Amino acid sequence: MSQTAFETTAYSRRRARMSQAFSVLCLAATSLGVLVLILLIWEILWQGLPWLNARLLTSFPSMYPEKAGIAAALVSSLWLITLTALFSVPIGVGAAVYLEEYAQASRWRSLVQLNIANLAGVPSIVYGILGLGLFVRALALQRSILAGSLTLTLVVLPIVILAAQESLRAVPNSIRQASFALGATRWQTVWHQVLPAATPGIMTGVILAISRAMGEAAPLVAMGAAATFITFIPLSPIDEFSALPVQIYDWASRPQPEYHHVAAAAIVVLLTVLILLNATAVYVRYRYGKRIRW
Amino acid sequence: MMQETTIDRPIMPLRPTSFPRERPSRTADDLAGRPPKISVDHLNFYYGPKQALSDVTLMIPQHCVTALIGPSGCGKSTFLRCLNRMNDMIDNTRVEGEIILDGRSILGPKVDVVALRKRVGMVFQKSNPFPKSVFENVAYGPRVAGVRGKSVLYEIVEKSLVRAALWDEVKDRLNDSALQLSGGQQQRLCIARALATNPDVLLMDEPASALDPASTSRIEDLIFELRDRYTIVIVTHNMQQAARVSDQTAFFYQGELIEAGSTNELFTNPARKQTEDYITGRFG
Amino acid sequence: MSNSVIDVAPHGRFGIEGQAVRPRRWGEQVIGVALFGCALVSILTTVGIVIVLVAEAAQFFREVSIWEFLTGTEWSPKLENKFGILPLLCGTLLVMAGAAVIALPIGLLSAIYLSEYASSSVREVVKPVLEVLAGIPSVVFGYLAIVTISPLVRTIFPSAGVFNAASASIVVGFMVLPMVVSLSEDILRAVPRSLREAAYALGATKLDVTVKVVVPAAISGIVAAFLLALSRAIGETMAVALAAGNRPTLTINPLDEVQTMTAYIVQVSQGDTPAGTLEYRTIFAVGLALFVTTMFLNVLAQWFVARVREKYE
Ligand SMILES: Nc1ncnc2c1ncn2[C@@H]1O[C@H](COP(=O)(O)OP(=O)(O)OP(=O)(O)O)[C@@H](O)[C@H]1O
Ligand SMILES: [Mg+2]
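Above: inputs. Below: predicted complex with adenosine-5'-triphosphate.
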């Protein structure tokens, strides 16, 4: 053999080329996701921005696309996410605290944990069916904002619980030990030390959950709760309601292209609210996250 | 955890007491004459199936410093955590035997562990201040015990910080985050925090092992000063430190208490071969 | 010695009259029970889902045999009283399969790129983009499907209808893509460095290392990620209801209009069907089928996740 082992051969060059090609393939795949997002946002702005005006925000649904607006839907959605947050945060954080700080390692705890993981994978429309059977019919709440937000609470509860658990787990054990060693009770330890330290993470999870609740249409449609022709502003939790994503669904499903424009304009509003929510999450994480460094 | 037994051992076989001692130990007679603050009787401790302490019997006299020494994993921390029931926090543990504090058993389900921990303070190996202000750290214990009122709390905080020899360094920065203090200051803060609940026993698990020599020596001075007011139990890997600060020393090996006695005696004239091997660094 | 101030924190509750008795801390106990109650809500949710679905579905199956439901090839509850779920199931699986064709390979390749090739600055751009993509509501994708994707599909395949499974598949594929990427990337990153280095030391190229070492080592986790994505695709509702259409069809042609289980539930719910009728109960029967299918995939995924855990712990 005249070659030394360090020289490139045709074979090794081909292998290197294939490796190169593969990396380009991977890059292309990754870019696709980014491209789709850009396409989506561009389409929506293109279609929706010309129709986005004050009338859209202040009018009710209408037979005529140029008169249709999202006043009722937007107010309903704000009602829904407020109540959903009010219900899901205490219950979700409570469950997480129970699992992380109170329950001993046991079969019961693994069961609850497994159950939560499964609930996170249940399609949201199934929660809608539960809401229909339980809140709308059995508890006779009718198609009220209350029934809607209770349903959404069940949808987002696993998200809140899992996020809160993760933040609780990130709190170092030494803090708990220090607190217990000073004669604090379990709840004092949780309330004064563990929860404050976990708050930024919990807040991020909560905002994620609220964003999800804001965008969910399926459970509301399934529970029959979202009437499309709500031509009033819902003022109390027992009022009937619409919801922004449900309104968008209705408009998008119509054949007239004008309605598609109204739908796009409403989507711009929906996405704006979502961006605001997430910006809050980023701010919270930045503001309170950097203060504590273990 | 991963510490080798060799790390903190004296480099040369030597009798640490041959160093000049500026703080006199209590003598064996003095120790014997004192009432026991804590007496541990035939203590067994299990982590699940694994036995970590077997048949430990030890008297801890009042207003003395008791040092626990022994190779890594021999059960020193476990023993210490039995004394304020911190082991309750760990799932699947079991304890047998008896621990008496001031004439009363502290084991058993009926004991109020919360009240117990107010009387038996603890300082950990790694300083663990709360991510709050210096003031809030020290005030936390009294607060959770129900003490209200800023001025009362302030007095407790000041007094505790003075006793922990930290007051002069932090009196102008009580509202700064405790995490900004240096490692040595943080550890003294943790001591102050433990003192603020007015305990009569202070448990210290390698309180100086993460500190530089200067901070270590400050902590040792502090321990000596606190001796007259508190009963102190300290775990250390550092034989010289045990010799310097303690009145009584207990040597643990593989979950058993091999030997305990006055520090002077144990270091100059150990009764057991294992003890001698360990303190002279000829171990294993 | 004035010890009085420090003694404000008293020894009070410990050992009154020589007895070390635990005081009853009512507040603590109430809180403990309340927290337990919170955790119980999650169990009750599952129980609630099962009871509601099974109770109404049982009523349904009193009038329609389970056999007919599972094997019937026509679904026309309103007009012809035909209750064969196969067309709905077929529509669901068709959309799912299409979504899988998009999401699984692209997702895995992206995950490989992010974990093996990308610099941290690229990752810092791509990961938030994927998070945003994951956070976009289903209806928005549905809108994109009918307004943009469907016309595109019809330009390429003139035989396609306005509503077709393909456009639904495409958007659902991109909806579940972020999930595939982030789950798979986590798994790939968990593969120990030493394994990669061992392969490099033997003269392997990056392609060899990735395909022959890293991916095989992470395969259980990747399968779990795929299964979860399939489950998500099956449960996907609004986008599919908008794009795939509302005609239950037993077909494997992605250009046909189909109806998925979820879309059917939406259709009936919108129609203001009176409670207690057979049509109303179809919601629960189809819901039960949907629940069982997704639950099966989720449990299977968790089984694979458990296998990963065993390996690394
Ligand atoms: N939480 C636990 N669960 C199970 N076993 C434990 C636990 N903590 C300690 N052990 C075991 O109990 C034994 C005694 O541990 P301990 O921490 O008391 O040793 P130590 O003497 O303090 O060691 P070191 O000097 O390294 O701190 C060791 O074998 C250890 O592995
Ligand atoms: Mg230890």
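Residues B 76-77, 205 surround magnesium ion (ligand 2) (CB under 6 Å).
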